[in-house]
Specification:
Length: 253
C-alpha cells in the first residue's frame, strides 16, 4: 500500500493525502472550524438535471480524522479501498468556517483522480533523462522562502503511453541537496569545517505536477548563512537515480 499525494496518480489500494491550505492576506492562517469532508465519485451514468456532475457520496470524514499539519494546513488520509472507491474522478468537499461570525459552513471543492494500475512491458530497460531548472537564484538573508525545482522526464521509447510519462513525473521521489561553496562560513583550507559541506539529500516538501518545493530558512535560527550555494536535485525512477547539474544560489544582504 503506497501513500500518495492527490496529484501522484493514486490507484485502488493506495492511501492518499487530501490536503487543504488556507491563506489570508498571502499568509497561512488557521480556519475557525471544520465540520466535515464529503468525498464523492463522479459517475457519468448518473448525470441528470438534479445531479449535473453525477456525484455519488463515497465517504464522510469527521474532524476527529482531520489533522492540523501546521498553521493553515490541514490533512486527512484516505484509504482507497476497492470496495468503496472506483476508478475515475472524485471530489473532496471541505465544509469550513473562516471566522467565528460565519453563520454557515462554506463548501471548498477539491478534486482527485483514481487511476487503474499502470503496466508497460518492453524488451529492454527504459532509458530516462531529466531536464531540471531551479529558482530563485538569489535570496535575501533573513528570508524564509521556497525554492522551486522544475523537472521534465524524457523517455527513450516512442511506444510509451502519455499516462506512463505522467506517472513518472508525479510519483517519482525527488530530493534536493544544498551546499555552501563560497562565503563567510566557508573554510577553503579545512573542508571538514564547512557549513553544509556534503549535505544529505532532503526530500522535497511539496510536490506538484512538474515541480517540487523546498523551504530555505535564512533567518538567524535557520541553516543558511551569507554565501554562494550549489543546489542539485535528484529524481529516483525505478532503479535509476538521476542527478541534476549544479545550479547556483546566492544568499545576500
Amino acid at each position: 500500500m503506497a501513500l500518495r499525494e492527490r496529484y501522484q496518480s493514486p490507484t485502488l489500494g493506495d492511501q492518499i493525502n487530501l490536503d487543504l491550505y488556507n491563506y489570508q492576506n498571502n499568509a497561512l492562517d488557521d480556519l475557525y472550524d471544520i465540520q466535515k469532508i464529503e468525498v464523492y465519485f463522479l459517475n457519468t451514468s448518473q448525470i441528470s438535471d438534479h445531479n449535473p456532475d453525477g456525484r455519488r457520496i463515497k465517504e464522510t470524514i469527521l474532524p476527529v480524522n482531520i489533522s492540523s499539519v501546521t498553521t493553515g494546513h490541514y490533512r486527512t488520509v484516505v484509504t482507497l479501498e476497492d470496495t468503496t472507491y472506483e476508478i475515475g474522478d472524485h471530489l473532496d468537499i471541505w465544509y469550513v468556517k473562516f471566522n467565528s461570525y460565519d453563520e454557515e459552513f462554506i463548501p471548498i471543492v477539491n478534486n482527485f483522480v483514481v487511476y487503474t494500475d499502470l503496466r508497460e512491458t518492453h524488451d529492454r530497460p527504459f532509458v530516462y533523462s531529466v531536464d531540471f531548472e531551479i529558482h530563485p537564484k538569489k535570496i535575501v538573508k533573513g528570508s524564509k522562502q521556497y525554492i522551486k525545482i522544475n523537472f521534465r522526464p524524457q523517455i527513450d521509447s516512442v511506444n510509451l503511453l502519455e499516462r506512463f510519462y505522467y506517472n513518472i513525473k508525479t510519483t517519482s521521489n525527488l530530493y534536493v541537496r544544498i551546499e555552501l561553496t563560497e562565503g563567510c562560513g566557508y573554510h577553503s583550507g579545512f573542508p571538514e569545517m564547512n557549513l553544509m559541506t556534503d549535505p544529505e539529500w532532503k526530500p522535497a516538501e511539496i510536490r506538484g505536477d512538474n515541480e517540487a518545493y523546498l523551504l530555505v530558512d535564512t533567518t538567524d535560527t535557520g541553516d543558511y548563512e551569507l554565501g554562494i550555494y550549489s543546489v542539485q536535485a535528484k529524481i529516483v525512477i525505478d532503479d535509476q537515480e538521476i542527478i541534476s547539474p549544479r545550479f547556483w544560489m546566492q544568499i545576500f544582504d
